[in-house]
Design goal:
Elements lengths: L8 H7 L3 H7 L15 H8 L3 H17 L1
């Protein structure tokens, strides 16, 4: 599974509970935010001034770790 910038924030959060911590480390407190159900990862990152490439890298690294276990 690869996370992309076109995915909705809620879709990403539903993949793995540990992804919430990645969002928080990047300054995105998306869990419970009304925008999480309608915003793509790109829209959320742009709206909060977050580096989308760094966020995607960290999210996908976390997903990959889980798949390797």
């Amino acid at each position: 599974m690869k996370i992309t910038e076109e995915m909705l924030v809620c879709e990403i959060l539903d993949l793995d509970d540990e992804l919430e911590a990645v969002f928080k480390r990047h300054g995105l407190l998306c869990l419970g935010c009304p925008g999480a159900v309608s915003e793509t990862l790109r829209e959320a990152a742009d709206g909060h001034g977050i580096d989308i490439d760094a966020l995607l890298s960290d999210l996908n690294r976390q997903v990959q770790r889980k798949e390797e276990v």
